[in-house]
Fold these 3 entries.
Entry 1:
Amino acid sequence: MQAPVVNIQDVKKVYGKSGANQSYALKGVSFSIQQGEFVGIMGPSGSGKTTLLNVISTLDKASDGVIKIAGVDISKMKSGQLADFRSQKLGFIFQDFNLIENLTVYENIALPLSLQGVPSRKIGPSVQKVAATLGIAELLQKYPAELSGGQKQRTAAARALVHEPAIILGDEPTGALDSKNATSLLEAMTNLNEQHGVSIMMVTHDAFSASYCQRILFIQDGELYKEIRRTSTREVFYREILDVLADLGTQK
Amino acid sequence: MLVKLSMSGLKSKLKDYLVLLVGLVISVSIFYMFQTLALNKAFIESNSVISSIQFVFHAGSVLLAIITFFYILYANSFLMTLRQKEFGMYMMLGAKKHKIMMLMFLETMILGIVSLVIGNAIGIGLAQGVGQLLMKQLEFTAGGYKAFYMPSLQITCLFFLVLFIISAIMNTLKLSRISVLQLVHAESHTDRPAVKGIMTVVTAVLSIILLAIGYWAMFNMETLMQAGIIIALITTTSGTYLLFMTFLPLMIGRLKKNKKRNEKGLNSFTYAQLSFRVNSLTKVLATVAMLIALGAGAITAGMGFQNNVMVTVNGFTPYDMVIHQPTEQEQAVIDTITFISKQQYRYKVDKKYVYYVKTDLEQHPPFAPYGVGRDSFGQYKPITEAISTGVVESDNWNDALRLIQPHYLYREQQVQIVDEQKYNQLQAEESSVIVGVSDDFLAHKEKWAQLDKMQAAKYNLSEMVLNSKYASYHMMHGFSSGTVFMGFFLGIAFLAMMASSLMFKILSGATKDISRYQMLHKIGVRRERLVRSIYKEQFLVFLFPAIIGVAHVVLGMKMFSFILRNPYDRIWVPLTIFAVIYAAYYFITVQMYKRIVLPSK
Ligand SMILES: Nc1ncnc2c1ncn2[C@@H]1O[C@H](COP(=O)(O)OP(=O)(O)O)[C@@H](O)[C@H]1O
Ligand SMILES: [Mg+2]
């Protein structure tokens, strides 16, 4: 079997310097994600989802534990190396789109390739291809301000995808979208995952969004609480998710 | 309630407000400082021999007023950007629009009045400090110069009050025209160049025409005189602004058009950064270009005048001293001076003629000008032409004798050359003139002054009309030190204005850029790369106004060629000073900008 795309062992994250105001946001989390998986991370607000995503995405350093992405241990890398690693191996979709609003859609999508020094003649076709996959081929010359939320987020997805990263990480990518736009984004992501074999890890607190995943990890108070897998239809999975969430609620 | 809310909003952006306030205070104090000179008639009249200097001051004030006008408008649009999102929020929560507009108006006015009070206080201090310092440096006692000068205070208050009222109205109007949604999403706006297509081309051509007229006026200052200054002032200023409004966007557009270059590394982002705020940038950069031109130009001109003094003075007369019939006192002073050459010429005077002795003049030929046209200025050689007796006909000899015999002496008589024999027979009063060239003119300054004073008393003339070398030195020095004083005053004022213009440009734009740099950091752009992009972007931002500003200085100096022998003499000195200062600004700006936009390590 291939090495997992993400493999984390006993990852801890402490906020605060020392003493009384120290708090554990992650208290030893371990899991792995295989190539081609679509994994969701769920949990109540403040449970450590964003923290987890940040340490995996190398934006923040774990206090303890081992994090391997695409077989590479990132815990000992320097900030410059981490930046290079992010730009080559990871793709991001954030809740607030994070497009650069003074670049056109085309330029936004092309940016990761330009940054890696891909020659101009190869950039065009790659951008066209991902844009077509995500259904934004007609919008390439527009500026982000001229797009709807869903179009913006699909642009962000295209940008996350264009350099063929090992995994796409999303922090509440549907959080700022209405249900119609959210659905179309989730369908696009499913399509990427199923048709193109792209690995995705997505943080969400929304059961509907989570139901598009194949597997969901629940965390609570910085610890892995439960893990469920989709075995039949999305509707069934959706209900299972709601059950777990209800459990989480009553436990508290 | 709303006032309370807005006060808290104000507090949250205290840093930005402080920057704004400092900027306004600087502009008020510079304006005040400049006006203490420009409006002080007594000072200008007693310190400038040439009346046009006052006109130069007026021209300077007009320019400073124009620059300040745009500066204040810019500062206030910065205030607007600070507040618009918050005001939009209030309106969304149900605040009435006219209340918000009232608030905006009040805020602009209060800020204006506060900066006026502080600015004037600092301006008085500045005027005192800078004035004293320059006077000391230039050995220049400026009688009647007052750091606390009422007319200047009045004009400054009036000028800025009008400006603040205008900008308060403009801010309020702007607010009344935009919708709540636009306000709330103010930051995500894509600003596009206002003029497009054919209009851009037309304005670009117009800007070139205006600049061409301005340069033409500066080149023909000699014939156009004061009208030339006014023409140059208006056309170069408006031409520069138009140039930046049309050419800069066109240029950046060109940069971006090159797909290959645009898609290389961070270039697309760097160029997009450049073009994004292109509208506000163009005006600021045009202002900076004008300030560079004025600041460096003023210092260049001032130094040019200083360099020019001795050249001009030596051009007036080859003799350091010309004294007719020295008194005992005068002789005593003369004896203390070391001369390289000293001659005495005898002469006799009757009702019709002044008789010089031929042999005296032949043995020690006096100086006469030589050379032709402009090049002849300041060139003197002992005369070689032979002289015959009788009334002097030769132009050369007339010129030579005119240098020996000042115009105020023997106005009624003609000059006649006689031989020794005839001279001795003449029944007329005998006299003589001593002319001399000292070892070092400037070293004996006090002695020349003493001699001039005695001469003036002797002939009952004002020292001004003595036409001695010292008199012209005194006049030229008075003229030049006044001009140098003013040049530095202007230079300091305009360079200080430039500093705060740039500061505004950076700070008002930077907060909008934070999220972009954060985003780039997240998707894995190395810090060094972001830093490089910033250096590159700011370099281009700095480059264009520098080019235009220096072009203005270099071409504008031509304007002085009718007063200065060589206006380009040592022009590299002020240009180097400017380059060093400007480069320092560039690096400081980049550092400040980096600190604001880059995620902390
Ligand atoms: N920068 C930080 N400094 C201190 N505490 C933090 C920081 N970021 C998050 N936390 C704390 O860590 C815990 C987990 O936060 P987060 O990962 O943002 O939760 P979630 O995304 O699941 O809502 C919370 O208790 C939060 O208060
Ligand atoms: Mg979160």
Note: Chain B touches chain A at residues 188-190, 259-260, 262-269, 272-273, 275-276, 515-516, 519-529, 601 (CB under 8 Å).
Entry 2:
Amino acid sequence: MENRIEKALSKKKKLISIYFTAGFPKLEDTKSIILALEKSSVDMIEIGLPYSDPLADGPVIQQSSTQALKNGMSTRKLFTQLKNIRETVEIPLIIMGYFNAMLQFGVEEFCIEAEEIGIDGIIMPDLPIDIFQKNYQAIFENHNLKFIPLITPETSSERIQTIDELDSGFIYMVSTSKTTGSETGFNRDTLDYFERIGKMKLQNDLMVGFGIKDNSTFNKASKHTKGCIIGSAFIKHLSAEGIDSIGDFIQKLK
Amino acid sequence: MKKYSVDEFGFYGDFGGAFVPELLYSNLEELKENYKQIIQTEKFQSQFQKLLKDYVGRPTPLYFAENLSEKYQTKIYLKREDLCHTGAHKINNTIGQILLAKALNKTRIIAETGAGQHGVATATVCALMGLQCIVYMGEVDIERQAPNVARMKMLGAEVRPAKSGSRTLKDATNEAIRDWINHPKHTHYIIGSVVGPHPYPDLVTTLQSVISKEVKTQLRSKEGRETPDYVIACVGGGSNAAGLFSEFLENEKVSIIGVEASGKGVNSEASAATTILGREGIIHGSKTLLMQNKDGQITEPYSISAGLDYPGIGPLHAHLYKTGRAKFISITDDEAMQAGLELSKMEGIIPAIETAHAFAIFKYMNFKKDDILVFNCSGRGDKDLETYRTYFNY
Ligand SMILES: Cc1ncc(COP(=O)(O)O)c(C=O)c1O
């Protein structure tokens, strides 16, 4: 069976992927948010499994995670909420979280349940690629899950080539050397970096994330890449406007 | 082959490694590629040794505690790290790391702190070297450790409150790591214990190993032998313990005892006894034992001593525990406070409350009359006077 991520990446357009924290604003919002995002023609969704100590995240995602945990979100709860999601949703679903949560659930058990639900890929920013390859790659592959690696402006070309050897669907290209949600905008260096990596002719597509918040940043980041991932800006929108105006937020990006 | 040293992948047995976001990869790689080589240079060694001697006040005495020895019918030595400049062993590490930061041309220093001891030790070496210093400290700790906040400010450091999570040491560490992500080029992160991603546990152990090197020389002149029968130290993250243990790890004749804080008791839900309450997992980029719920969310520890109030232990200690090389004993708040009082009254030494935990183990052990015990007297009690005062109603 073709992986849904690959199918999405083969579309002849720039892709929008949205990150949200499961269990926020309310514990039971997960399904409604996913449905609303698909209805707004979002191409991919990253479902954030909230973690107590999210090292790569800035204040917005930290706070949504803290709130989600307070609301009662857990790995088990998320899997239960997503149980029949594939009856209605067709776009790729990716779980993004921190490795300790997966380790405690059991890596294999986590992958088995994710596959049963119809999850297509996993982003674990703190699972280093060498340890993934040594200990977990076979498990991921057995359960048809893509492991999506990150690169940053500090990642050397040599290392990018190594990372690109994985069949990962896409590479998550972090726009600037910052935690999520920083609003520094994109300077010349950032734009050069997008172009430099875009021209490397990697086998995997590139999706840019961190710091994408509106139409202008979206266009700049997707010019040399396949598309963008929006997280903090979406969470902020959810906090301010609630889940009913998701369509408006997506419309304004395009 | 050494059994208790870090391997080429950054692991101690099953523990350690660098489980960090790619955003930190180049920072850590730079450190990993360079720290061993820099520390070995003559330039580093001569500066390090000179500062340890003239500025920190090393070697610290190995003091034979006659009264305590008499009471417990065994031979008790105290390694007097409490006599170091700034009042604890923490400065051995910060002196070494500031020289390393200089060698790597870093201009901005960040650190985390709980009780403020490591923050003060970092602010001190930054003042000495004229480098910018930012210390992250949990909002809750800022309130309960006001004197150390004032010391850091006098030393020219900026103290930034960590407002996330539980607003204590673990969150201050998260904030320091995030700062490092946001400033990858010119910043060096001086971590305060043998925790965090590789190469930090090994780096800090190496810098603290001066403690056990001195013990060997001092014991030789006092007892005619280099090795004690027991080495004993409190374990928060485990840096004073790693410093005291390091030279004796491979010599299985030396018994190793790590002392953890069990707070109000291991079953009280207000405890920091990581080896008992923890499970294997990942905290601050290291695979180790940590206190967490079944979903892997990190839980809040508790101890009366802010320096032992950490939900993990360094990967070296997790390895020593799992292999049985070290024995871990946990001590409650009350036991530690009484032991601190006893050391004060019998030897005239008021220890830090962290340190006091180590001196509370006698009722759990059977030492022989001619056993030689070396305790790490890791810090002095000045910073804890308010807590002692409240506890004993002075
Ligand atoms: C005097 C003293 N001892 C021990 C500790 C605990 O740290 P570690 O376990 O790294 O030695 C601290 C930490 O603040 C301290 O101040």
Note: Chain A touches chain B through 39 residues (CB under 8 Å).
Entry 3:
Amino acid sequence: MEQFWNVTLQLLGGFMQNCELFGVTLLAALPLGLIVAFGSMSRFFPIKAVCRTLVWIIRGTPLLLQLFVVYYIPPMMTNGDFRFGDRMTAAIIAFIINYAAYFSEVYRGGIESIPKGQYEAGYVLGMKKRQIFFKVVFMQVIKRIIPPMSNEIITLVKDTSLARIILVEEILKFADDFRVQGLIWPVFYTGVFFLLFCGLLTLLFRFIEKKLDYYKV
Amino acid sequence: MAFLEVKNIKKSFGKNTVLKNIGFSLEKGEVLAIIGSSGSGKTTLLRCVNFLETPEKGVIYVGGKLLFDADDPMIKRESEIRRNRLHFGMVFQQFNLFPQYTVFDNLVLAPKLLAKDQIRSRGSYRGVASFKQAQASIISEAEQLLEKVGLTEKRDSYPCDLSGGQQQRVAIARALALHPDILCFDEPTSALDPELTGEVLNVIKGLKSSDSTMIVVTHEIGFARAVADKIIFMDNGVIEEEGTPDEVIGNPKSQRTREFLARFNRFGD
Ligand SMILES: Nc1ncnc2c1ncn2[C@@H]1O[C@H](COP(=O)(O)OP(=O)(O)OP(=O)(O)O)[C@@H](O)[C@H]1O
Ligand SMILES: [Mg+2]
């Protein structure tokens, strides 16, 4: 029993790292993704080309590779003079870039799915572009992107364990340490943490969807 | 010069010239009906008048004021267009209500934003300098408009809970809330079940008696004949015939007009 609590506390400590990575990534990538989405839809070709190419590269290569690149390449290029703070910082940067790219595609899909008639209705009512976006289109986009966005966010929860590849001390790293000491069950036990966390998120998203049920788009 | 003067409008999409030198005029309080077969350019004309499309050629005057000149780049700036657009209101075939707002909020959203902007930039909205006061009159006007279109009891409903006819009546009230000089309708009843067209057409008839200037694109020939002071028959991007309802529908001169009306008579309207 004491062993169980010990393991639980250790794993929980590790899971806090996962939560930190999750939280910071989410907070930064949600707005950043929206900006990238605007860039990908820009009528100014160079901006559009740069944004779309970036998104293509980020979504077309493994997150693991991106973690390597962010963590190992800067010190190699600068003879060790520059690196992104600690391992966690490097992981956070790689995750934010990766998820901003994914989120931007979700936003873009949502924004492009709003019928042209909504914008035109706004125009003929004398509204400005910005007003149309924030007062008319935005809430409709939110409603449409909640299902795909919840998928991405739940994937993010599980992806945080990939940070282990650059030796961030997240939950799987602790479980693996136990395994090396001959203790196998903590490896499976880590699953419980992820299941509970994802379960809570699922409930939260369902709640939000219910809240927005009063209108149809 | 008439109240509304539209002159020499030319509009193409790629190589397809949809409007070939179209012009018409309308006096204050008059109702113009535009009829014509599918693809003849009626919607495009209405969209040009509302600045949703930019014609390559042509000018538009309202009340003697030049609102659009295809040759003048200054007049095509976004802020200018936005201001000039307010002379026109537009009711779409597909209603285009804002789904996340109640009926009432659909009506007051744009006027409130406009009031805020105008009070900030020129110190007053419709002669009122305080936003609180402007807001109060926007609200009471919206209530009157809902009564006018017979939807007072739907004030707090969402568009998805209304019938098509009710949604279109809200769209009409929403357009009126900005006091347009000229209200445009693009086939306002085409997306409706036949039994719902009457309620919308009646609202439009009601507006005529309150002296609104209107342009109605419609396939309802009987309705056009009953409300319009003036009818334009469009064919293939030109005005084939225009005149009073009795002239155009009762006694058409052009062969194309006769053929078009014959199709309607055969299938009934
Ligand atoms: N955005 C656009 N891009 C390209 N072509 C267009 C566009 N809008 C309209 N057209 C073309 O312009 C022509 C006239 O279209 P318009 O919608 O004005 O006709 P209409 O008289 O309103 O027809 P309907 O009675 O079917 O509504 C059609 O040939 C159409 O294909
Ligand atoms: Mg049309």
Note: Chain A has one domain: 2-214.
